[in-house]
Amino acid sequence: MIIFLRHAQAENNTKRILAGRTEGVPLTKTGIEQAERIAKYLAPIDISAIYSSPIERAKHTAEIVAKNCSLEEVVIDERLTEIDMGKFTRMNYDDMFAKYGNIFLKFYENDPVISEHEVETFPDVQKRVLDMVDHVLKKHNNENVILVTHMDPIKSMLAKVMNLVPQTLFELIVANASLTIITEQDKKFSLSAINAMDIDRYDQTW
Question: What residue ranges define each of the domains in the chain, with the CATH number in brackets?
Answer without folding.
Answer: 2-84+121-203 (3.40.50.1240)
